[in-house]
Amino acid sequence: MTSAQTQQQTENFTNPGFSSVLGQQISTPHNCRHSQIHTQTGHIIKSGSAESLHMEVEGMEDEGPSSQSELPQSEDLHLVQQGSLHLESSAPVENVFVDKKAVDKLTEGLLSHYLPDLQNSKRALQELTQNQLILLDTLDQEVTKFRECNALLDLNSLFTEAKVYHNKLVNIRKEMIMLHEKTTKLKKRALKLQQLKQREALEKEQQREKELERERQLIAKPAKRT
């Protein structure tokens, strides 16, 4: 394709009568693929969708193999893309009419399909969250208990002191038993000594009485007068 034809085709893209010119270019003796591109481009331009034209041209580019024999065709595709860019800036965007009932039905269908599973998932997540909160409270309580234990004295030292005091108590008990035995022996000895003293005192008293009786007998009695 010559530079004059390229410039002419570019002007045709910017011209409002691009559709009729494209129709005339379709009848020119090009290969079959080039004619298909112009036909689809004219159809897209008539519908007023510049973005669809760009997508169609890219789709046609992806379909063919990249070879040296199709270089003129790629130049035509490049020109079509440039023309679509001009049309995007000049062509007004059509307002798409959407049926509200259809939207509502589609919405209801989607909700009826996904909503039960979502609700089940929500309930499961709520239960899981509640269980996690309970577990966190339990862990906080356990941590508080451990902190209180750490705040107290060391348990090992307490057990060691308990053993020491237990041994001391055992020794004191032994000493008390020994003292009890000694006191018992002393009480028995004291009782024996008391009995012995009482016996000695009784013997002394009896001996004294005997001596007094003997003295009374030795005293001379006055003779009786006849």
TrEMBL record:
Residues 1-37, 56-75, 202-226 are annotated as: Disordered. One of its GO terms (cellular component) is BLOC-1 complex. Residues 202-218 have a biased composition (Basic and acidic residues). Residues 1-30 have a biased composition (Polar residues). Pfam families: Snapin_Pallidin (PF14712). This is Biogenesis of lysosomal organelles complex-1, subunit 6, pallidin.
